[in-house]
Amino acid sequence: MFVEALGITAIAAFLHLDGSYFGQLMIGRPIVVGTLVGILMGDIVIGAKLGLAIELIWINVIPIGTTFLPDVTGIAFFSVFWILSNGKLDTGNCLYALALALPFGILSQQIDYWVRKQNSRYVQRVEQHVNNGEFSYIGVLITHHLFWLYIIRLITYLGIIFAGKYLLTLIHSLLPITCSVNYDTVFQLFILLGLAVTFNMFIEGRAGFIDKLLGRTN
Question: Under 8 Å CB-to-CB from 103, ≥6 apart: which residues?
Fold first, then answer.
């Protein structure tokens, strides 16, 4: 179990680097992460279902420059991993996992914020080598920095998935699936909320494009 979790977490930690520290390939988006984790854990339907739900909610969250964003990669990874690792694939368990993934996503975000604050040390070292004409060291420093960012993310994700798995079991003991909440309806409302966010983003973007086309200014 640990070896499987380590392997999947290693992939998720790598996907997290996309858009935040290198590239902009969108491989760290929830729909991609959820589907991939679902494939690796033997249930692409659950992975894609949760990935889509999370993607719709945060579809307008795109990392640009130094923008500090929620860890949507982690939220998708945590929720899909917890569901498929405990074998309970009903809608109620999906909602429990999603609800639990949100605060852990915030925790992961705060760790990411702390890591970014440490980047100034590497910037100073790069500037020092540039001033000395030692350009060959720049690539080494960047690679070294990305390696440690990856290791920190890997350790963070491992700690979260095992802590969350324990907490999800505790939640099940306190709020059994047999309670009276209509989980299917709640999950459908969650999807509808995501569609509303997507539609609103499309309308705002389209309106802005038309204003620019017509030469309108605020």
Answer: none
Phi, psi torsion values for 24, nearest 5 degrees: -155, 60
Give a three-class secondary structure readout of the chain. CHHHHHHHHHHHHHHHHECCCECCCCCCCHHHHHHHHHHHCCCHHHHHHHHHHHHHHCCCCCCCCCCCCCCHHHHHHHHHHHHHHHCCCCHHHHHHHHHHHHHHHHHHHHHHHHHHHCHHHHHHHHHHHHHCCCCHHHHHHHHHHHHHHHHHHHHHHHHHHHHHHHHHHHHHHHCCCCCCCCHHHHHHHHHHHHHHHHHHHHHHHHHHHHHHHHCCCC
User: Integer distance in angstroms from the first to the last C-alpha of the chain?
Assistant: 57
Q: How far is CA 31 from the centre of its chain?
A: 10
Token match 């999906």: residue? 94
What tokens does 214 get? 């017509």
For residues 37 and 76, the answer to whether their CB atoms sit within 8 Å is yes
Residue-level pLDDT at 131: 79
Cα(132)–Cα(113) distance, integer angstroms: 30
pTM above threshold 0.85: no
The CA distance from 185 to 198, in Å, is: 20
CA-based nearest residue to 42, from 85, 6, 13: 85
Each residue of 21-30: pLDDT tens digit? 666 788 888 9
Beta bridge partners of 22: 18
